[in-house]
Give the backbone structure.
Amino acid sequence: MQRGSDRLSAHRDDEMKHELQGLLRSGHPTRTEEWHDPEPYAEDDPEVAYGPVTPSRAPARVEALRLELGRILGRTSFPAGPAELTRVLRGLHAPDALVEPLEGLPRKARYDSAHQLAEAVVQAQEARTKAEKGD
C-alpha cells in the first residue's frame, strides 16, 4: 500500500538505513571522504540539536517541552498529577532539568496530556520569573 507522503521505495529505504547504520552505532561519521560528512552545527542552530529539551532552553518552549515530555512519558502516564509524573520521570532517568520544574506544580493538579503538562510548567516558570523581577 502506497502512503501519500512516501516518496521513496521500500528498497531505497533499506539502502538508506544501511548507509546510516555505521553513523548511528558509532556516533561519528564513518566515511573517509570529507565531502560525505554532514555539515557541522552552526551557532544559530536550535539548541534542541544538542540534547534534551529543558523548559528554559528552547525558543518555542511549550512545544519543545511537550515533545520531550511526550517522548519520555508516552501516552500511558496520563492522566496523572505532578508527583506521579515526577516518579515516572525519575524512574526513566530523565534529566533533572526536566524533572525539577514538575516539583513546583500544584499537588492536586491533574494533567491529561504532555501538552497540558508542558503549558503548566512554562506558565509556572514565567510566573516565578515575573515574581523574582518584581521583588
Summary: The chain has a mean pLDDT of 77. The helical segments are 10-26, 61-73, 82-91, 96-103, 114-134.
